[in-house]
Structures are given as C-alpha cells and as structure tokens.
Amino acid sequence: MAHATRADSPVLLDVLQDGVLTLTLNRPEKLNALDQAMIDALHAALDYYATNGDVRVVILTGAGQKAFAAGADIGQLRDRRAPDALRAINAALFDRIAAFPCPTIAAVRGFALGGGCELALACDLRVCGLSAKFGQPETGLGILAAAGATWRLPALIGLGRARELLYTGRLVDATEAQAIGLVNQVVPDDELTAAVDEMAGLIARNDRLATRLTKQSLRMIEGQLEQVRMFVSAAQAVCFDSPEKVRRMDAFLDRKKKRA
Ligand code: COA
Questions:
Q1: pLDDT value at position 159?
Q2: What is the pLDDT of residue 224?
Q3: Which domains does the chain have, with CATH numbers?
Q4: Counting C-beta atoms within 10 Å of the first and last residue's C-beta, which end of the chain has fewer, N or C?
C-alpha cells in the first residue's frame, strides 16, 4: 500500500492531515538525485492518492538541508539510450504531477537542478528557503532539459529569461528566483515548513471540487504542447546516443577520482 513507507523508502509519505499529503524525496546522501526507484515510488503514490483519501493539496519536498533534488541520477542517465529517451521516464512522471487533480506545492531547500528543477516546475506553486538554487545544467552534460523546462520555464518566467537559463545552465538563487517569478514565496530555511503548511492550509479549507476545476481551467491555458513533447523526446533520443553525452557524464562521475 502506497502509504506504508519505511524510513529508508525512496519517497516518504506523510499521513494526510486536513487533506494535505507530503511526499519527501528521500536520498539525501545523493542530494535526492532522482533514480528509478524514486520515480517508481512517486508513480505508486500518485496511483494510490489519485483515488484514495480526501487529498486537497500535495506538498513535494526533499529530505535533508542540501537539496530538493540535484537532478536525475547521472549514473543511471549515463547508461540510458535512445529508446529510454523515447519512454520519457521523468517527463511522464512530471506530467502526471502537473495533471494531478489537486494543487501541488514544491517546498525547496538547496539545489533544485535539472530534473529537480523540472519537478518543481511541474508543481502548481513553489515556495523556497533562502538556500534554494535553481538551474538547468543539462546542455553541459550533453543532453536537453527534456522533462518540462523548455515549455514550463518560459510559461513562468518568459521566453527571454528561459532561453538564458537553458543555454547557460547558470544557477539562480532564491532572491532572483522570486524576482523573476520562478517561485511564489521565499522564506528563511527554518521557516519553510511552516510557510508551506500555511499555504497548503489556505488551499485545503476551500471547496475541493471548485479548487480542482480551477486547476483544470488553468491547465487549459498551457495550450497544445503535444508537438513540443514529441520533439523533445526525439531530440533527447539523439543526445542519449551521442558519445559526447557519455564523455560529459563520465567527467561528472569521475571528478572525485581525479581530485584524489
Ligand atoms: N546524480 C547522481 N549523483 C549525484 C547527483 C546527480 N544528479 N548530484 C549529486 N550527486 C551525488 C554526488 O555524486 C555525491 O555522491 P558521492 O558522495 O557518493 O560522490 C553526492 O551526491 C553529493 O554531491 P557532491 O557533488 O559531493 O556535493 P557538492 O556540494 O560538492 O556539489 C552539486 C553539489 C549539486 C553542485 C553537484 O553535486 C552537482 O553538480 N550535481 C549534478 C547536478 C546536475 O548536473 N544535475 C542535472 C542532472 S541532469
């Protein structure tokens, strides 16, 4: 059953309180890098809570102080090839989160990079601590940000800024993230949980049906993205088979050996 989590589960599920469900990415020693076990656990949680319990708000967060999620697991990504790209492993999960019937909030401390940033973008709202750092470093690894950043980032912060962040891969701190509309609220890290709980509480006290239909209505203005999604998966398939991608990911994975 999806809500029976252990302390070492890839995703921790907090018992519903007043309709608020908290999902915590639980791999802090790897900065909550998204691996297949975590993806599977998130799918299982969505499967369960889409139809069970009176969920009114979902909060997504990362265990530990250092990261929301530092991206897809580069060790696993390195070995993925074109057919894996066409399966759109992360994008399919993030689309489910974006489409989840009730509002979702990303509570971000520390790094939200690559797929971690895209996961936060897939949520309806983002609240972060002052330690937050957002970024899309994918092109530096020889791949695309193929799990939503090319369409969700422009929708949030405008095409010009999105281009800059996607081309440069530079990090955006919490203050800048708020100034450009990437996050809804910034608070000191030790106030993050309370701030997110307060926002979730404001949402949860409103009518469940009206809130869900409001979310569906807002999703319609996202428009026809099917062509973009198909292009991005095909483009990623090309990158996944490129030797440069393997070389760049090996450089990340081997960097500590080189320092030693
Ligand atoms: N995939 C796999 N492992 C990752 C990871 C990722 N995306 N991000 C961090 N980790 C692991 C590190 O390998 C390290 O594991 P180890 O202790 O077994 O070697 C651990 O998490 C801690 O990371 P470390 O790099 O030592 O921390 P740091 O504070 O020096 O640097 C970052 C933090 C975020 C700058 C750095 O980890 C980084 O650049 N990560 C990759 C970010 C990225 O490119 N994400 C997009 C992927 S598509």
A1: 95
A2: 67
A3: 11-210 (3.90.226.10)
A4: C
Determine the pLDDT at residue 1: 43
Cα of 254 to ligand 1 centre, how many Å?
Answer: 11
Query: Which protein residues touch ligand 1 with a CB less than 6 Å away?
Result: 30-31, 33, 70-75, 111, 113-115, 137-138, 141, 256
Calculate the alpha carbon distances from 136 to 35, 42, 60, 70 in Å.
17, 22, 19, 10
Nearest CA to ligand 1 atom 21: 30
pLDDT of residue 257: 77
Low-confidence stretches of the chain (pLDDT beneath 70): 1-4, 223-224, 226, 260
Residue of 31, 38, 171 to test ligand 1 pocket, by largest number of atoms within 8 Å of CB: 31
The pLDDT, as a whole number, for residue 141 is: 98
**How many angstroms does the Cα of residue 206 sit away from the middle of ligand 1?**
40
To test the pocket of ligand 1, the residue of 25, 26, 30 to mutate (highest count of ligand atoms within 8 Å of its CB) is 30
